[in-house]
């Protein structure tokens, strides 16, 4: 706004602009009022401020040269309607998930969206990149199975079991932000605590914001034949541990102030998310019920005890950490 204001004075009245720039306030007050309004110059004023006028001419010369060049090049600007964030204008290095910079970007975007849930979450974990999950996601993306999820075996990660998976396809190269935002927009179909939530219309959103999920790995591939024979780009992200449990679909996180469930483990520098995640997952659905007898469930003295502990690893090893 200030720049526009000064430019207006420069175009309409160059001398007035120079007065504002070079003359002290006490001298400007002595300038006749009609000079300010109509830019009329008297011989007396010109004689008194000859040095100022010379400075005006010197100052304006490069500006007018720049204006003339700009007008001459005005027809050289790009005229196509397609923005540069689409298609071939998106460099591969901007979206290739094997690059560390892209991995950091994907993690940062997930953390951002996880802080935007409504109602707010008290136990939402911060995300980290998982190379094993990324390898599995890339392997499946390369298969080019249009909008088809990988098998649990293909998504299996040690200590986590079968991880969750989100898929996005596009006929053009787009930044990862587009894929994540598309998944997140399913929030409009989600009602917290409702038993009527439909996994098929909210599943991408709930997996993104599942509180106990804290590892992500993604893959991207260009596929030759898709819908109507057109090529497309296959975006795949795997999430560990998996979310979207049937009995908790309406409760992907706990309601409360950010970090309310982890006051001693809050990542408050960048985002207010919890960082006390469990590096394991329960493979049995009833581990919490079985934990009424922890000495029996997590007993490692017998072969049966080792088997129970392996299938309820989070319950047995993460007593003060966030997990399902």
From TrEMBL:
Domain of life the protein comes from: Eukaryota
InterPro entries per record: Allrgn_V5/Tpx1_CS (IPR018244), CAP_dom (IPR014044), CAP_sf (IPR035940), Crisp-like_dom (IPR042076), CRISP-related (IPR001283), Cysteine_rich_secretory (IPR013871), V5_allergen-like (IPR002413)
Keywords recorded for this protein, A-Z: Secreted
Main location (coarse class): secreted
Localization annotation: Secreted
Tagged with keyword Secreted: yes
Matching PANTHER family: CYSTEINE-RICH SECRETORY PROTEIN-RELATED
Protein name in the entry: Putative cysteine-rich secretory protein 2
């Amino acid at each position: 706004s200030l720049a526009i204001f000064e430019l207006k004075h420069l175009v309409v009245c160059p001398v007035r602009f120079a007065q504002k720039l070079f003359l002290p306030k006490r001298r400007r007050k002595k300038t006749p009022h009609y000079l300010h309004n109509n830019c009329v110059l008297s011989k007396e004023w010109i004689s008194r401020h000859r040095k100022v006028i010379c400075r005006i001419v010197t100052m304006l010369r490069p500006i007018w040269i720049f204006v003339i060049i700009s007008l001459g090049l005005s027809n050289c600007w790009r005229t196509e309607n397609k923005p540069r964030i689409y298609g071939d204008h998106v460099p591969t290095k901007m979206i290739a998930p094997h690059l560390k910079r892209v991995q950091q970007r994907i993690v940062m975007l997930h953390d951002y969206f996880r802080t935007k849930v409504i109602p707010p979450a008290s136990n939402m974990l911060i995300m980290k990149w998982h190379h094993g999950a990324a390898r599995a996601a890339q392997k499946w993306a390369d298969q080019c199975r249009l909008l088809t999820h990988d098998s649990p075996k293909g998504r299996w990660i040690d200590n986590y079991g079968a991880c969750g998976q989100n898929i996005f396809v596009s006929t053009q190269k787009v930044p990862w932000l587009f894929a994540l935002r598309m998944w997140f927009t399913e929030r409009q179909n989600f009602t917290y605590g409702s038993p009527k939530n439909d996994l098929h219309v909210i599943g991408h959103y709930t997996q993104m914001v599942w509180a106990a999920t804290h590892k992500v790995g993604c893959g991207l591939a260009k596929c030759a034949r898709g819908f109507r024979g057109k090529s497309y780009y296959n975006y795949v992200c795997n999430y560990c541990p998996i979310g979207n449990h049937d009995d908790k679909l309406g409760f992907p996180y706990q309601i409360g102030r950010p970090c309310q469930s982890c006051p001693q483990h809050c990542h408050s520098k960048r985002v207010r998310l919890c960082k006390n995640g469990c590096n394991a997952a329960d493979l049995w659905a009833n581990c919490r019920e079985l934990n009424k007898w922890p000495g029996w469930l997590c007993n490692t003295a017998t072969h049966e005890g080792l088997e129970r502990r392996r299938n309820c690893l989070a319950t047995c090893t993460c007593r003060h950490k966030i997990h399902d």
